[in-house]
């Protein structure tokens, strides 16, 4: 998963170090850096950011004050030369508290913590990076204590059961607590179609379309009455002629 971050620090040298670390860290995208926290505030109101590396001692507006005025603050990793703010930082639910000078090893530990929190918060995360072979869409799906990397092109169909969605692949089934709305936010409607209130199928793996069901490999998926006409029209079927 790609974590979009910004750095807010009034010291140019500190920004340079953290920016270099961010550039060397896989799946971490540095959107911008700010020496002026007020300029950062304007940026944060207009841009989706997952993580802030935030200095505490800054003129005009310190890090703690900045955090208070953010209505929906992203994850925070505090960076400071002082230990006295450590307790307050954890009261603010900060991911981590990095003492300057920050080492790359310590930086990576903090970023890994942030990625873990994001996965817990979002059970399904899109990876916007592309595989070198086929421009494949990839998601990371949290299922219990494990996180699964799933190539959407490998998904045969999805089944809803209560508050859970099962992703059926050729060799396994992955179950996650999701809604149909969550799923449709990440899958391509050009590749998947909903055929029943509880089923979404991959168009690429459909073998047979009948009036009441669809066959995908060895599985038969029901076509709901509400979806039947739309499904057959989608495939230009002549069932209604």
Q: What is the strand and helix layout of this fold?
A:
Layout: E1 3-8, H1 12-24, E2 28-34, H2 37-46, E3 51-55, H3 63-69, E4 75-80, H4 86-91, E5 96-99, H5 104-121, E6 124-127, E7 138-143, E8 146-151, E9 157-161, E10 164-168, E11 173-177, H6 180-184, E12 192-196, E13 199-202, E14 206-209, E15 213-216, E16 219-222, H7 225-234
Parallel strand pairs: 1-2, 1-3, 3-4, 4-5
Antiparallel strand pairs: 6-7, 7-8, 9-10, 9-13, 10-11, 12-13, 14-15, 15-16
Domain Response regulatory: 4-115
Pfam families: LytTR, Response_reg
Organism: Polaribacter filamentus
Strand composition percent: 25-35%
Using the coordinates shown, work out and report the CATH topology of the largest domain.
Answer: Rossmann fold
Biggest sheet character: 5 strands, parallel
**Helix and strand sequence:** EHEHEHEHEHEEEEEEHEEEEEH
Over the alpha carbons, how many angstroms does the gyration radius reach?
A: 23 Å
- Average predicted local confidence, pLDDT: 86
List segments where confidence is low: pLDDT < 50 over at least 5 consecutive residues. Answer: 128-133
What is the name of the CATH architecture of the largest domain?
3-Layer(aba) Sandwich
Strand count: 16
Number of domains: 2
Rough shape?
Answer: elongated
- Order of adjacent strands in the largest pleated sheet: 2-1-3-4-5
User: Would you tell me the structural class of the helices and strands?
Assistant: alpha/beta
Query: Considering DSSP H and I runs of 4 or more, what fraction of the residues is helical?
Result: 25-40%
CATH class of the largest domain: Alpha Beta
- C-alpha end-to-end distance: 47 Å
The number of helices is: 7
CATH superfamily of the largest domain: Response regulator
């Amino acid at each position: 998963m790609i974590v979009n971050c910004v750095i807010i620090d009034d010291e140019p040298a500190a920004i340079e170090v953290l920016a270099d670390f961010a550039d060397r860290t896989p799946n971490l995208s540095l959107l911008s850096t700010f020496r002026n926290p007020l300029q950062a505030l304007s940026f944060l109101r207009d841009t989706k950011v997952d993580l802030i590396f935030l200095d505490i001692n800054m003129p005009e507006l310190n890090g703690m004050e900045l955090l208070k005025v953010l209505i929906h603050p992203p994850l925070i990793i505090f960076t400071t030369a002082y230990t006295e703010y450590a307790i307050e930082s954890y009261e603010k639910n900060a991911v981590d508290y990095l003492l300057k000078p920050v080492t790359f090893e310590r930086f990576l530990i903090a970023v890994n913590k942030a990625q873990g929190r994001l996965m817990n918060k979002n059970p399904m995360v899109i990876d916007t990076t592309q595989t070198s072979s086929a421009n494949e869409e990839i998601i990371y799906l949290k299922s219990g204590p494990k996180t699964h990397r799933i190539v959407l092109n490998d998904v045969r169909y999805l089944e809803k059961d209560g508050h859970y969605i099962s992703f059926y692949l050729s060799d396994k089934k992955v179950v996650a607590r999701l809604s149909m709305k969550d799923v449709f936010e990440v899958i391509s409607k050009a590749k998947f179609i909903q055929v029943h209130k509880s089923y979404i199928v991959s168009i690429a793996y459909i073998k047979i379309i009948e009036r009441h069901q669809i066959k995908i490999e060895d599985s038969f998926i029901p076509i709901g009455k509400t979806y039947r006409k739309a499904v057959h029209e989608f495939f230009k079927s002549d069932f209604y002629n």
